[in-house]
Design a protein that fits this description.
The chain is an alpha/beta fold. It has seven helices and ten strands. The chain is 34% helix and 30% strand. The strands form two sheets. The chain has a six-stranded mixed sheet with strand order 6-7-8-3-9-10, sandwiched between helices. A four-stranded antiparallel sheet has the order 2-1-4-5, with helices on one face. The model has no long low-confidence stretch (mean pLDDT 94).
Length: 232
């Protein structure tokens, strides 16, 4: 890990209402992530991994404690400021791809750039670069229904990476893929991590994903149970 911490999580607690009471999903998490990490939050359903990923991605806020992401304290951001952080600096990859079915591959990857201040020419180069990273330049005019599951997930990766974000958050990105496609997707992400120094954080319980991680953070009942660092 490089020294510059881009995420600092201190005594993070998250509670959700449940019936007449509440459920504590995170029970005082302390974690730091550095630039260029390839790390995973690992645990069964209900362990808190997706809740933690959502807070890091400013899709949710802590009940107590603090999560500082790229210098911004998530609990202190307005809805507009959270949207700005996601728009400019974060990429998201979900298991369901979340592609726009009636739009082409090019248009799907271009979409995040339309919210930023790029010219048409700049956007075209950025989209084609991203599609080259994931090996899909020949599918530029295809639409998601014409693609395989593995190709759809590669489009989702290209969309997440197109603006060269500082941080990519991936929630069970291989859940809908077979083993061969999963390994291709993970190798693609690992290559982008090495080439662009983008920090990747996964939420997963998939053994295929876990095998690629350089840092493994095991969550259990809303707490960090243990951590493992792999040799770089």
């Amino acid at each position: 890990m490089e020294n510059s911490a881009i995420i600092q999580i201190n005594q993070l607690i998250k509670r959700f209402p449940m019936g007449k009471g509440e459920f504590t999903a995170l029970k005082g998490i302390n974690l730091n992530f550095g630039t260029g990490e390839f790390a995973g939050l690992i645990g069964p359903s209900g362990s808190g991994k997706t809740t933690l990923l959502n807070i890091i991605g400013s899709l949710d806020t802590p009940t107590k404690g603090e999560a500082v992401v790229l210098g911004k304290s998530i609990s202190k951001l307005s809805a507009k400021e959270s949207a700005k952080l996601r728009k400019e600096s974060l990429g998201f990859i979900f298991q369901s791809y979340n592609l726009l079915q009636v739009h082409t591959v090019f248009e799907n990857v271009e979409f995040p750039l339309l919210l930023l201040d790029y010219t048409t020419l700049e956007r075209k180069k950025m989209v084609m670069d991203a599609l080259e990273w994931v090996g899909l330049t020949d599918k530029v005019k295809s639409k998601p229904p014409q693609l395989s599951g593995g190709e759809c997930q590669r489009v989702a990766i290209a969309r997440a990476m197109v603006k060269k974000p500082s941080l990519v958050l991936a929630d069970e990105p291989t859940a809908n893929l077979d083993a061969a496609n999963s390994h291709n997707i993970l190798q693609t992400m690992l290559n982008l991590n090495r080439e662009l120094k983008t920090t990747f954080i996964f939420a997963t319980h998939d053994e295929k994903v876990i095998g690629y991680l350089k840092r493994k953070i095991f969550l259990k009942d809303g707490l960090v149970d243990q951590e493992e660092w792999m040799n770089q």
